[in-house]
Write a structure and sequence with these properties.
Length: about 450
Amino acid sequence: MSAAPAPQPPRLLDLVREAASAHYGRPEPAERCVQWALRFILFHKRRHPRELGAAEVVRFLEHVARTEKKAVDLLFVAQEALAFLYDNVLGVQLGDIVLPQPPRLLDHLRMALRVRHYSPRTEVCYVDWAERYIRFHGLRHPRDMGAAEVSSFLTDLAVNGHVAASTQNQALNALVFLYAQVLGLELGRLQAVRAQRPKRLPIVLPPEEIRLILKAVDGGKGVFHLMASLLYGAGLRRAECCSLRVQDLDVTRWQIMVRHGKGAKDRIVMLPKALQADVRRQLQWRRVLHDSDLARGVARVALPDALSRKFPRAAQEFGWQFLFASRQLSRDPKTGDIGRHHVHEGALARAVTLATRKANVNRHVGCHTFRHSFATHLVERGVDIRTVQLLLGHESLETTMIYTHVARKGVIGVTSPLDLLNDVDAAEVRAAVEATRALAGPREPVALPA
């Protein structure tokens, strides 16, 4: 009788899949770790990763940087997968792996922005300005150009493009970053024609019109009404409102923690008590939706910075979920994971625009108009200007001072002399004449009004 065959040891890729599934709790990152481990092994001619080290990992990442179209996104994903392979499966410490620089300039710029934790919007904006700058000068490499070419590009934006001063400053910041952080070059003094910054006052609605518009906001089964109410009631920016997470709401103190606002600054604002019922209803709906996603295995949300690596299961926790979640699942463009993102900002903007028309408010009203009105109405009620500055998250007090110009207690609070003409009585005229005669000295008698 022949002996039973010895059980085969588990294959490495099966170990990676098992460990990643237990670590992340989701199938997508587990399969991603398996695919990158397989690509790493095949790149090194099927050698076992235990025979390879940090140098071979760097060589593989350099190959990814040279050959992949979306090199920046894939470099971070590959680094995370290989780090998991060595740390969690093989038990080998590779140390810090420095990501290679992609050969393409714009990818190099994306990498520099990504490692410095710039926001995705800033990344898209800076890359777009760098590409426009290169095309403006006939596809010349920025290394072969300098302050003169940057000045001519900025001048063309102001003179021929008629861009706003803020747009020109945005282009300038992008190019300064490109030269300083990517090319390692100092631009020096620029001789560009600067666009003039007009001194414009914000559009502020009276409380009556605010009430009419908020009443007319519809859509999303009441979600857009709650979001628009928070724009006015807490002075939130549109992006800040859309990206609120469940844990950002403190229903005990009735306040909101605004995370990673403009300029990567956090702040605390009030949560209007008038919205108690709506907020609790939204939290209850969000809990039901999250439980459904957990049952389907799609409960995942994008996490900021490196939290997805430090706390792999945090993406499934209720506290990290977006409060105003989209009703459709979406795929993360960087990792390919299926999850639930927040409501699109454009959807909220369209709801406010439609409500403005429905309320017959004949002014240009956007989401930011609620923020302007929030600040102005606080100033009108006598709230200290520095308190308003903290609630808005402004870096400079000068930025907040603009709301004193549109407040009712400011310039528009002064009564016009035309409105006083009909209020002048005979006694005031008689007193004015007597005062004039006293200053002029003794003269002919003046007939006073009866």
